[in-house]
From TrEMBL:
Residues 16-26 have a biased composition (Basic and acidic residues). It comes from the Bacteria. Residues 1-53, 441-480 are annotated as: Disordered. InterPro entries: DEAD/DEAH_box_helicase_dom, DEAD/DEAH_RhlB, DEAD_box_RNA_helicase, Helicase_ATP-bd, Helicase_C-like, P-loop_NTPase. GO terms for molecular function: helicase activity; hydrolase activity. It comes from Paracoccus broussonetiae subsp. drimophilus. The keyword Hydrolase applies. It is an enzyme of class 3 (hydrolase). Residues 281-445 form the Helicase C-terminal domain. This is DEAD/DEAH box helicase. Its EC number is 3.6.4.-. The keyword Nucleotide-binding applies.
Amino acid sequence: MTNETPRPNRSGKPRFQGDHKPRGEQGAKPQFRGGNAKPTTNHRRHREEPEEKFIRRAIPDIDTPFTRMGIDARVAVNLPPMGIEAPSPIQEKSIPGIVAGRDLLGLAQTGTGKTAAFGLPMLTRLLNIGRKPEPKTCRALILAPTRELATQIAENIDAYAAGTAIRQFRVVGGASINVQTMRMERGVDVLIATPGRLIDLIERGAVDLSQTKYLVLDEADQMLDIGFIHALRRIAKMLPRDRQTLLFSATMPKLMEELAESYLSDPLKVAVNPPGQAAAKIDQGVHFVTQGDKATLLAEYLGKHRDELAIVFGRTKHGCEKLSKLLEKWGFKVASIHGNKSQGQRERALSGFRAGETKVLVATDVAARGIDIPEVAHIYNYDLPNVPENYVHRIGRTARAGRDGRAIAFCAPAEIGELRAIEKAMKSQIPVVGGEVPFEASKIRERGGPAGRPGNNNAQGARKRPARRPSRAPKSVQRD
Ligand SMILES: Nc1ncnc2c1ncn2[C@@H]1O[C@H](COP(=O)(O)OP(=O)(O)OP(=O)(O)O)[C@@H](O)[C@H]1O
Ligand SMILES: [Mg+2]
């Protein structure tokens, strides 16, 4: 089974899903995806094929805000049905430069359309050059930190490129490397990868990066961070020097920016807002609570919005699993996603959540970056992240594309340091919405807080609450 993501049925040829034996595409390898869905083949589509192919391959004669910025009409025509009518600020600022061939560092808040900001002009350039990839090569490479984000980017690229001859392929861990090796035999226009699996494929001689003229690092600051930098350095060495490199993120700590420069040549730097800020429409709050009371408090918050989607971020895989079991016991529709789950379980958890079948997703930072589920209305930082920038990414899973959302951080006495680091990174204070401000936090806030602004706190007379035994379900959510 390949993990090539299905695309809208561009050519009119049948797409296959599940374990059914697919028929190949004119001698090419069959395309199908995981899951148990039924094949979508039907004979009527076969008969319509030549006509549809002709219509869809023609260059549409359209004039849109995107074509005026230089986006190929064959790509621009796919945007309105996706709800993308006019460019967002990051798209407006970065697309013309990328179309012109410049390297670019693009910084904009979460949920503001960075994927299209690099995807649309990159596809435009690929279409303009318009040649076929050689075996094992890719013409463009997009690197992302997690499998789920790589999958989502692949789906976006498919949607933007629908009706064109551009083909993408996604290579991530947790899927068969042999299938990925076989698929790469043909070469691909756009390869979307997590760095670890890409290195594995390169070592097997299955991928050749010598023809790759476009490199995108999504979530660039994380890709330059310690967990990925070694893989990235190895990959970068194999790419031609003469390439276009695009780096995008919502956060870019100073140190990372210096590192980023070494991957770029005479780059344009586009920052829509001062980098590191949370998305504008997130209603944030911090609730001070002891560690032992967190689960009960979470259940109280969740119980108020049972029909709305919420993501709960925990720090450890084990902690997330335990919490998700507890919430399930208390009657919530919950799934969890973290590194101890199989790839199948991870995919099912995310797709069930996307579909609204489960309302609560308990996750480690594996779901902190890039994941776009517009219906997510609430974020709970059950544990505060120890990488401060990840707070902005975690809460950025809500309030996407102009919507609003709420984010509550649970801060235990031992997490004051993390809270301080987060507020310092964001250069703003998070309003206190509940609990008693521990003495340590009140001192920081009285001094003007990490952001140097007077805090809105109720610090007077604050004291630590004694720790209570682990959580019981609050009355409102107790079930028999
Ligand atoms: N110009 C646009 N108009 C309306 N919606 C848009 C536009 N561009 C993108 N979107 C939508 O906005 C949502 C967020 O886009 P995207 O995932 O690219 O954000 P992002 O900036 O990469 O966020 P993050 O920092 O969390 O990765 C998507 O659902 C996308 O379809
Ligand atoms: Mg993104």
